[in-house]
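User: I'll paste a sequence; please echo it back and then give the predicted structure.

Assistant: Echoing your sequence first, then the prediction.
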Amino acid sequence: MTDVNDPGAAGSAATPVRLAMVGGGPGAFIGPVHRMAAELDRRMVLVAGAFSADAVRSREAGTAYGLWPDRVYDDYRAMMAAEAARPDGAEAVAIVTPNDLHLPVARAALEAGLHVISDKPATRTLAEAQALRALVEQSGRLYGLTYTYTGYPMLRAARGVVARGELGPVRKVVVEYSQGWLSRSLDLAGDKQASWRMDPEASGAGGCSGDIGVHAFQAAEFVSGIRVERVCADLSASPGRTLDDDCNVLLRFAGDVPGVLIASQVASGDRNGLRVRVYGERGGLDWSHESPDRLTLNWLDAPTQILHAASGYLDAGSRMASRLPVGHPEGFIEAFANIYREFAAAIRSGASLSPAPDIREGVRGMAFVDAAVRSSRDAARWTRIEE
């Protein structure tokens, strides 16, 4: 069973932040990932959870997570009230539910005085994201968003290469996120993970665009350091589906820099193919999730360079994102844990969440989905992103 030694309300910088979780019940993929990431560096510890609205399933999950029975709930509002009354109650809440619960759970947590870290996207719609932004600003609490890939050391190294001007002025940005798991109609066959993602009531206005398209969009802006201003989108849905499962989007960044975003969940045979390329006047960079510990720099008039994670020649921020010496592979959980570590540090110190994503990135993601859906419905007309 989880045992928190310090029951104090705030704790010192070394005291783990007490975390509660909403969602992540039996059969969930992302709930256990959040728990592992949160506890990897012992900067946070899971102490409570409302893992399912079904009491039996919630207890089953609580047992699997090693929690005491009195810290397991079947209603997130009851959990927040009970935890607020405890001297060792939760200080933050992780939201790992389908999208339709992101706003109400975040609202309840913020109103209870708890910090919030949420799975992406922030909400179902842009209007909900705007409402959440207002709640966060009024609450005085932190809000973090698990755009996981920003936690990879070499994606941060790529961001640094661009920011330092090593590539020269940015000429083009290309980002891809390709999966094939929905090439069969799993949603129509009752698969839980597929069904809610293709249900507008649960997912929101975007299917693939809101599920992985926001990851690609955020990675493009994160690495390039430039905001996208307009999109020209062609979103497609396979027969029998209401929401998009394939996205082809032209981008126009600030300064009229062109870009391309491709996201698909019906690319049969592709697994989790996130790839980011940025081209400048003097060269280009290339990062792929399939080889996350390396960054390739292709120069116009010099040999290609391959940079490796944890190497001494990297900037300090990129090195700090690695836990093992060079040559030892790290992956998804570790990248996820970097975001949780920075979130915990911000709670304890009051520092900025940067570079970990916050509510601003949450609104940006939903503004992208909103603009892409409107553009596609309007015969792929160029459409401005409005926050």
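Residues 153-319+359-377 form a domain with the Dihydrodipicolinate Reductase; domain 2 fold (CATH 3.30.360.10). The two ends are 44 Å apart (CA to CA).
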